[in-house]
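$ ./design --mode recover --in tokens.txt
reading tokens...
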């Protein structure tokens, strides 16, 4: 328990006392000395906590009682400091509002003086309480400085739980216990693995704790072990933690071979229960390496794995996983139940009402002034939040994702100055952003920004801590897009710019896009329904881009040079109805697209080729994209590498005049793995050189009614033919004319019938 919750809480208190806000509080109310004295007391408590929690884990009863008393006082101190910081933030916000009698009263000298006296008195009282508990013990504790503690980027969980703190999970607990005590699953796996799967914050760890501490479970298993795995799935670390949990003592530094010997000594001949909490590893080889060390227990031994990922569940077990859902129907959270929560748990830090079918959030929610995390996601019937939500000045995460009917955010959201994460992806009914959003300069997560009647791009100006993904929708209104200041948002990895199709004006859209240049760190860029003629030149200067998707830009005629972007792996051009050439310049003498792995170009009916040859703007003598397609794909360069040397996936779609695929194209695709040909009505055949493509694994041919001939000797793993009647007739079964050409391919699907799977033929 060396990384227990109490130690973390004490650490947070020290951070708060040393923060800028408490520096300001000390100066404003003259309580600097009181704050300094409290910090010294908490610091001395933290120094002995590691040793105390270690003794607690060894069942030292006196230390356990002392820690329980200390915990209550520490939590009271945390609540008190929260009260002070909340009130201070509230008064700062009020000082910026219009002057009212209430504001004047708050900031009168008498009121300030009285509040300062009250604050000093309460800080002294909590310090004296902590000092008393610290000194009231009959046992010695070693002082261990903070630096000795190894930090973990994710939370460290433990096996202890107060049963009364877990609401509405009895059904899940009982179902898992039944499986633990049932011997039939051990007939499938000698040591059965039971995964518990659910989204973050749903209570996977809490359910595992309830199961782990159940009296029937304790009786049934000779040995129980709890290991928090988290981000890094290191077999050596996990085995060390297992031994520590099994023996209640630290193991000396051993290599993996010595550790597995020690572990076998602990589990051999025993029916054990192992909980692996918070597993993220999706590498099957790593799991098999650990699993091999866990098979020495007596039949009936069980492993419980908690994870957010169904893939992890499938990797770790052949058995069905236990899917943790929202609270059951008899615990659905109507307004009355929410009110009960608010009145009963006023110091609540975390509230998860995800997927609970709640329709109305009660105004009382604003009284949970200590709340840090509030999850309302996947509640499709919520239309709005009460204004009182804006009083949650300590709230750091507000998750509203997948609230389909949500039409607006709190209008005073700018007061929520602590907000770091505002999750509003898939809020399909949102049409606008509240005016105060731009004041939330600590915001890290904002997946969606809706430009609307009241919403200017300038609200994004100061939100420079944003990271991850940002989607800007409803672009089209004339405004200074440079004020969005996207170039300063170095944490953004993915950017989607989507125009409103009803607002597009060529010169306005060109100017809007020009001002939305992102930071160089951007990895993925998507542009949808842009109504201008020319995409901005900055696209070719964002050199870290790995993906570009340009879709439904029906007036666009010019795209900047993309073929020299060094990191670009995926390029998708869809429905650029006016585009004739992808590049306006002549072909370069160097390798193009040095990293490109996937190229998709479809629904571009006017496309004639990649480059404008010799500056020419038209090639009317040729059918669209037939000969120019050869130019694009076959053009040689002065380098040793062909132009598309890294391309792995190629889709050719909706090219009405394409009749043949030239043989000379294939040498330019030395890394090709997947080819998809769709909606090419005149295409008759594929190049015979496809049989030389040793890297090619999958070919799919869809809606090509004139396609009749396949090359011989295709070295494929999978072939799919859909809505190609001539091919279907020639290849559809083992009696068909061209069946010998494809009989060696392991997986064949024709018109949704699985003709061949491995060695099995229907």
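writing sequence...
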């Amino acid at each position: 328990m060396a990384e227990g919750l109490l130690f973390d809480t004490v650490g947070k208190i020290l951070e708060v006392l040393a923060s800028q806000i408490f520096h300001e509080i000390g100066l404003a109310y003259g309580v600097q000395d009181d704050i300094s004295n409290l910090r010294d007391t908490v610091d001395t408590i933290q120094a002995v906590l590691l040793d105390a929690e270690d003794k607690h884990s060894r069942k030292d009863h006196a230390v356990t009682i002392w820690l329980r008393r200390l915990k209550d006082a520490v939590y009271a101190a945390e609540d008190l400091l929260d009260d002070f910081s909340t009130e201070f933030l509230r008064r700062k916000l009020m000082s910026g509002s219009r002057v009212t009698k209430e504001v004047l009263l708050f900031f009168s000298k008498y009121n300030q003086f009285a509040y300062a006296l009250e604050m000093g008195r309460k800080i002294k009282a909590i310090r004296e309480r902590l000092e008393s508990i610290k000194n009231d013990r009959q046992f010695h504790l070693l002082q261990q400085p903070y630096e000795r503690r190894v930090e973990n980027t994710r939370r460290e969980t433990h096996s202890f739980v107060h049963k009364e703190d877990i609401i509405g999970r009895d059904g899940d607990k009982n179902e898992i216990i039944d499986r633990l005590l049932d011997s039939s699953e051990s007939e499938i796996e000698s040591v059965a693995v039971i995964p518990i799967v659910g989204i973050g914050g749903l209570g996977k760890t809490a359910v595992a704790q309830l199961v782990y501490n159940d009296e029937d479970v304790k009786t049934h298993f000779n040995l129980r072990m709890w290991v928090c795995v988290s981000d890094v799935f290191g077999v050596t670390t996990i085995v060390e933690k297992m031994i520590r949990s099994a023996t209640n003592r630290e193991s000396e530094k051993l290599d993996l071979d010595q550790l597995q010997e020690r572990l076998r000594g602990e589990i051999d001949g025993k029916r054990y229960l192992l909980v692996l909490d918070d597993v993220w590893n999706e590498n099957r080889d790593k799991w098999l390496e650990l699993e091999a060390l866990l098979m020495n227990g007596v039949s009936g031994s069980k492993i419980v794995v908690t994870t957010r990922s169904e893939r992890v569940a499938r990797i770790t077990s052949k058995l069905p996983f236990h899917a943790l859902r929202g609270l059951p129907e008899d615990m659905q959270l109507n307004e009355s139940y929410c009110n009960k929560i608010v009145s009963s748990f006023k110091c609540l830090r975390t509230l998860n009402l995800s997927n609970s079918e709640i329709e109305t959030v009660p105004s009382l929610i604003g009284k949970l002034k200590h709340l840090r995390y509030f999850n309302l996601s996947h509640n499709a019937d919520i239309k709005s939040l009460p204004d009182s939500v804006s009083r949650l000045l300590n709230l750091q995460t507000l998750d509203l994702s997948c609230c389909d009917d949500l039409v607006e955010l709190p209008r005073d959201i700018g007061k929520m100055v602590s907000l770091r994460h505002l999750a509003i992806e898939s809020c399909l009914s949102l049409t606008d952003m509240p005016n105060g959003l731009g004041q939330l300069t600590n915001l890290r997560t904002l997946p969606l920004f809706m430009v609307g009647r009241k919403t200017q791009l300038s609200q994004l100006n100061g939100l420079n801590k944003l990271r991850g993904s940002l989607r800007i929708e409803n672009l089209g209104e004339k405004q200074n897009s440079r004020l969005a200041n996207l170039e300063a948002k170095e944490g953004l990895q993915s950017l989607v710019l989507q125009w409103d199709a009803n607002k597009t004006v060529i010169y306005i859209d060109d100017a809007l896009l020009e001002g939305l240049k992102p930071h160089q760190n951007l990895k993925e860029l998507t542009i949808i329904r842009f109504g201008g003629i020319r995409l901005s030149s900055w696209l070719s200067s964002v050199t870290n881009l790995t993906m570009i998707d340009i879709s439904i830009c029906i007036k666009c005629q010019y795209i900047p040079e993309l073929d020299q972007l060094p990191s670009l792996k995926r390029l998708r051009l869809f429905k650029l109805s006016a585009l004739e050439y992808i590049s306006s310049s002549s072909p370069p003498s160097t390798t193009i697209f040095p990293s490109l792995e996937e190229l998709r170009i479809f629904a571009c009916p006017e496309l004639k080729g990649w480059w404008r040859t010799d500056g020419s703007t038209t090639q009317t003598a040729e059918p669209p994209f037939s000969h120019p397609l050869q130019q694009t794909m076959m053009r040689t360069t002065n380098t040793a590498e062909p132009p598309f040397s890294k391309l792995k996936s190629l889709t050719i779609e909706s090219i009405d005049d394409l009749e043949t695929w030239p043989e000379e194209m294939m040498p330019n695709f030395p890394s090709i793995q997947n080819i998809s040909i769709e909606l090419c009505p005149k295409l008759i055949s594929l190049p015979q050189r496809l049989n030389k493509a040793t890297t090619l694994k999958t070919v799919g041919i869809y809606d090509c009614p004139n396609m009749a001939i396949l090359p011989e000797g295709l070295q494929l793993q999978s072939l799919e033919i859909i809505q190609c009647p001539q091919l279907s007739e020639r290849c559809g079964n083992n009696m068909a004319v061209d069946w010998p050409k494809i009989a060696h391919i392991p997986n064949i699907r024709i018109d949704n019938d699985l003709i061949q799977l491995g060695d099995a033929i229907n």
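exit 0
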